[in-house]
Every structure is written in structure tokens, then in C-alpha cells.
Amino acid sequence: MKGQILCIPCTVRATYDIATKATDNEELQMKAVTEVLKWLSENHNLLDMTPAMMHTYAFRLVQKITGNNDPFAQLKRESNRIAMKLSPLLRDELARLSFREAFRFAALGAICGNSIDFEVEGYEVTMGGLEESLMKCLRGKLTIDDTPKLMDVLSKANRVLYLLDNAGEIAFDKIFIEFITSNYPVKVLAVVKSAPILNDATMEDALQVGLNSVAEVVTTGSSSIGLNLDECSEEFLRQLGGVDLIIAKGQGYYESVTEIENILRKPIVYMLRAKCLAVAKSLNVHRGANIIKLVNY
Amino acid sequence: MKGQILCIPCTVRATYDIATKATDNEELQMKAVTEVLKWLSENHNLLDMTPAMMHTYAFRLVQKITGNNDPFAQLKRESNRIAMKLSPLLRDELARLSFREAFRFAALGAICGNSIDFEVEGYEVTMGGLEESLMKCLRGKLTIDDTPKLMDVLSKANRVLYLLDNAGEIAFDKIFIEFITSNYPVKVLAVVKSAPILNDATMEDALQVGLNSVAEVVTTGSSSIGLNLDECSEEFLRQLGGVDLIIAKGQGYYESVTEIENILRKPIVYMLRAKCLAVAKSLNVHRGANIIKLVNY
């Protein structure tokens, strides 16, 4: 998915949000915002970039200017902890369902993890609210639902590459991966970022939620939002070449992987909630729609 | 109120929103956004400007680039029409209340008008929703409530300058002005912008809702958001000098008039809903708080 004009104000706002997380020094915050304004106004091929690339630039700029390498560190650890507390809710529901229902439910759970805002200050106060919000999401529908096709691909696959999105939601991805490996004879490679970028899951997050007990956890070798093949390690590219199915979670991977579908030439399933207007438009759905979409099928 | 760093991404987003209303030509939209990025990145005194000044710059830039002088024209006319349809609800409630209750209710109504989003496409479908939203707002509270002081000032005043904010809500301002002039021996000057800026009320809007039947409608002589004395007409400045009370509606007037309170040196009452974080912070209230705040009292 190429960038849209709307991605420009969004990138400026993201810079502000990242900068205020990275430092309390308002001069540095202002410098970060000003530098991103300059970059965006000078770069005349913005609409050929993916939104993921614009936001990656903004994040790295804030890292450089503020000297804070991981502004979301605390948020990520706390998100994992809360999501793990919520996980039994999902498992209890799963246990009550038939196979087909459970498959869809576990997949939807992984998407719902993405839509729950774990950024809570008063944890004790809002845990009930988070539970409610999760259950509401789990009762929601899939606006694009390719789960039958996904089951078909899984039944023929050996190796699956699972591109993880944010800390927190990876606790729900773990449940989905567990479900897949229990029901299909596949090996799952769970992919995290090699270094901090936004609240994207890193190795530390994967270990915190115990993803290594259900999958081999690997990194892209890059800290780009989404997938930027130019930045990936040789090892990751080799792993990527050897899988039969790619599961791409979240908007960042949707934005970037859609641009290289013809290079990858294997089944890819996008699992996401379309949280922004540009992504929703590109999928021809309303904002907030839950999507499981299989391509190269 | 001076600008904050947060006002910068907000100005970029506003430029996008105005540009997409002004034209369907994406090249022109992109040009407007790029030009505002440049201006914001070059201007190193942004935090000495009011947010109202930043947004005024953005609007005029879009006017110039797109050639569309009044991107909100249709929205303004439709907002007036819908607000007039909703007005009887407010009047019915008013008729049931004691004087003090009615005063507070009419004032809150003028604030609620500002918080209702009249930007509806399917009018018939959402009229019920708008009614519900208005009634909910009218049952809300005033986080800062200087109505007793305001009554006191009104009982001693002769001439009142009422700075109007947006089209649509001016139908509710009309009800408040009617209430004031029925209960106090004051003359009200209702102030609109001299030319289009965002969805701010102009003379055309004032006439559409019949404001001229309850007040003398005048213009600032300027199309700035809020009040920019450098741009006002001599006549308006003369009128401003002769009043005993200024009623300043909405965020734009709050942002700009707070900077010149010591020049104006007369009672000013700010009536607004604090819709953005920067304004809420400056008033030390939560976002969405309803405010009636009197200064120079």
C-alpha cells in the first residue's frame, strides 16, 4: 500500500507522540517535530513510500535527537503483562467451541489484541474495562473472512512464518499459534523486530510472554516498521524463502507486504484491524473492520 | 494562550482537512500540505503564536492554492438549517425552568451547540442522533461555572459584545442572546467574521438563523480565527471600546483573547467546550469540559 496524503499529518502527529514518550525536554520534542516537517516537505516522492517507511523515519529521527533508543520500553513490558492476565479469558472461550468456531475465534483474538489499548496508567482500575473491551471485540465480526482458505493452506503447509506486530497482543498471537500447531503438522517461525521500533515486539517481549514455548522466535534482522527487504538479514531472507505460508499481523505489515506480494510469490494472510482511514480505504472496508485476507492463494 | 508543540501536528491535519474540502484535486491538496509543512518548519517562533494564528495561516494558504474561497460554505448552510430544527428542543426545556436555572441552561446550550457535530451527510437518518447528543450535552455539567458572576456583570452592563464562533451553533447563541436581552436592559452586538474562515459564522449565516432579530450583527472586519486586533476594522475597534462586557465563544476566541486581556481591560467571559488537549491544559480541566469563565471581573 502506497502512502496517501493523509499519511503526512499522521506522521507528524506520530513524531509528536513518540517524542513526548522519549523525553520531557520540550526543546528536543520541538526539534524532532521540526526536523520531520522539513523532511516531509523536502521529500517529493512521499506517495511512493509506504506509510510504514514514513513512520520508521520519524521514529529513528526521534531516537537520534532524544538519545532515547526505546521510548516504548515500559509500555511494552506492561502491555505483555496485562495481555497475559487477559489470556485465560480467551482460552476459556476457546475450550467451549467446535474446531471451526475455535479456529475463527483464536484468529479473531489475535486481531483483537491489536485493537485493545494496553496503554493504561491505573492498571487496577481499568482491568475490568480491558476485559470488557476484549470480549466486545471477540463478539465482533470479520468483515473479510478468509479463514476457510487459511485452513486449507495450513493443511498443506510445513513451515509458517508469523510476522508479529505489537507487544501485548503477542500474548494472543501465542494462543493462535498454539492452536495452529496443535491442529496442523506445521512448524511456526514467530518473527520479531531486531531492535526497538514503536511498541513492536522484540525478542525480549517474545520471551516475556513465552512465545518460544510454541514457536521458534526469529528476528527480521531489521527494526523497520513492517517488512523492508532491503534491511532484513540474510538469515531471515533464507527463512522467508523456505516457508509455505506467511501470516502478516497488523497495519505495518499490511502496508509493506502488499507492495512485495509478487516478489514473495507464496500464500500470505493479512490479519488486522483496519484502524486508519487509508488502510480501510485500501481494503475497501469501513474503519475498525476486522480482516483475515488471503492472497497468492 | 500561546501555541504548544501539539498545535503543530494539529495544524498539518487541519490543512489536510480543509484542502480535501476545498478541492478533489489531489495535486493541489498535496501542494497545500507541503507548503504548510515548509512554513511550519521555517518559522521558529511558532510557540509565540496562538494556535488560532497557525490555523488562520493554513486556511488562507489552502484558499490561495485551491482557489476555493469558502470550502465550508455548504456545511455552514446545512449546519444552520439543522441547528434551527433543533432549537425548539432547547426552547421547550427553557420554558420549564426558573430564571437562574434557565440562564445556566441557555448558556450551556450555546456551548453545546459548539460540541455537536453538524457535519452530517444523511440528514434524515441522523437527526435523532443529533437530538440525543444535544440533550446529553444539556444534561452535562459546567466544570468552570461563573454564571453567578456573569449575571452580576450583566445587571450592570449597557452594551455587550458577543463574539460568535461557528455556523450552526449560532442558532443556539441566538436563544441565549434572546434570553439575555429579555431579562437585562442591555444591547447586544453579535460579531461575525467579515469573510470565510473554516466554518466560522459570517453575515450570511447570521441572517440565515435570524440573529438580526435579537442583536445588531457586526463584523470584526477580519477573517482571522479568533480575534486579531491588527486585522480588525476601525469601526469594530470603536465598537469594542464602547462595550461593558465581552462574551467570547469557542476555542479560537479563547486562544486569542486570553493574550490581550490586559489591553481590553473589561470583563470578558469565555464560553466554550475545551475540545483539544492544549486548551484543556491551559484551563486546567479535562478534555471535553464545559467552561463559563469570567476574567477582569
List the topology elements.
The structure is a homodimer of 297-residue chains.
Chain A: H1 7-22, H2 26-42, H3 51-66, H4 73-95, H5 99-115, H6 123-138, E1 142-145, H7 147-156, E2 159-163, H8 170-183, E3 187-192, H9 203-208, E4 216-219, H10 234-241, E5 245-249, H11 250-257, H12 261-264, E6 268-273, H13 277-283, E7 290-295
Parallel strand pairs in A: 1-7, 2-3, 2-5, 3-4, 5-6
Antiparallel strand pairs in A: 6-7
Helix pairs in contact in A: 1-2, 1-3, 2-3, 4-5, 4-8, 5-8
Short description:
The structure is a homodimer of 297-residue chains. With 297 residues, the first copy, chain A, is α/β, with parallel strands linked by helices.
Structure in words:
The structure is a homodimer of 297-residue chains. The first copy, chain A, is α/β, with parallel strands linked by helices. In chain A, 55% of the residues lie in helices and 12% in strands. The radius of gyration of chain A is 18 Å and the shape is globular. Chains A and B meet through helix 1 and helix 2 of A and helix 1 and helix 2 of B.
